[in-house]
Amino acid sequence: MIAPSIRHRTAARGRRDRWLALITVTVALASLPAIVRIVRTIPLRVSLDTNEGWNAYQAVAAFAGDLYPHAPRLFFNNYPPLSFYLVGLAGRWIGDPIVAGRLIACAAFAALAVILGLVARQMRCTRGEAAFAAALFVATTLSLSHYVGVDDPQFLGQAVATASLLFVIPEPRTLRRLWLAAALMSAGIFIKHNVVALPIACIVWLWMHDRVAARRLVTAGASFAVAGLSLCVWMYGAGFLEGLATPRGYSTAVAARAFIRWIVRVPVFAAALVVCLRRFPRDRDVAFCAWYAGIASGVGLVFLGGDGVDWNVMFESNWAWCLTAAVALRACEGITSNAKTAKTAKTNCPMIPLRALRPLRSDVFFHELLNRLRRSTLAVAFALLPLVAAALAVHRASVDPASSLASRMAGASAFEDDIAFVASRRGPALCEDLALCFWAGKPPEVDVVNLEQHVRRGTRRADELVRLIDRRYYAVVQLNAGHSLLDGTARDALQRSYVLARQSQAGMLFVP
Fold this sequence. Notes:
By secondary structure, the chain is mostly helical.
């Protein structure tokens, strides 16, 4: 016969699980309209991001044998090669590398949500907690960034690298598992070279808890890195290293503003992590979340100071914080995951006794409130981030309709007209939005973004581009609305030699 107290606790946890499931379903349903809209944009020939055309040209170049030309003229490649082969191969089958890249990005985004749930389960979270973390990751990413469904290797690289956690977290950490994890991490970096926070966090975490595994992971990772770099230098020559070393301007002021934008988004996550660390100081899963979230956030914020760097560098941070949310919800039940002393302790409060928080005297009142939260309330607090961000996005779309995905979808027919106009002009074209030139069948001519970085850093000059504009070499020049072309000399040459032919969805189109 089951004791009344046990029945009471079981019923109470059942109610909390039902509330968590309800919150998870609510967050998932709130994300559904955005997901449907993104899926609908996949086959459209309308530019979703200025990088889409650039990635498409590189995917074609991967099979044409000129992915990293030595001393390139005005078109550069500063990304590692692996994603271009994957997208190029899929593009040959589908018929359009931009559409193929969007499909791969969507699949990688879904894989990241699934991997998050699986890793949370390995960290002794319940199915409900794991599902909530996955839904939270989807919602926060959709509400804070436009990158979902864009032809870009960020999600693919992160998904491949993050899959390594499925072999790092569980024990025993055999030699085969660690080498497989290192292979996935290395492959992720050779897809997108900013996915570096996870390998660092894993090595630091393992060094604190399992030094033998840490040494093996370092050895395996270094072996794959050296082998990969050697293979790339052998295949592409000096152009590969020159491409990766493309200069980029940096601004500490921009990084500081990015920090302010970021810090207001994570107070609930950070507070929950701090309290979990104090409540379960020996919990390896809590420690991993602390290392990964801290390193991923720090690395991303540093990267954000670079010219042209977008919020996609914070996706690792967002993934790590959502994993932290699952572990924090697990901590509400007092479940530890220490390999030697794993046991369950029932408690009504998710956090730590006030006496353990005496060093944080200024935060006593805040932590006292946290101590009284139940799992459902904590889950609602986590879910406030995507809900508030989505509300702000709706407000922005009402003020600036052109900023919304729905507006770009509505302008698809106008973008098709611009593609036809560029295709009708005989001769090469210069496009700031390279997807326009790509769909118009024009060869790659000028990578305006990277050329601008070269000019600003003094490694290249705009003289060659100015001469080509003065000679009316380009049959058409496209500039994004509200933007300017490189420096004053190039703009002056454009005004001397070209006239504005049309201004529409693709921006401003000039002809000689």
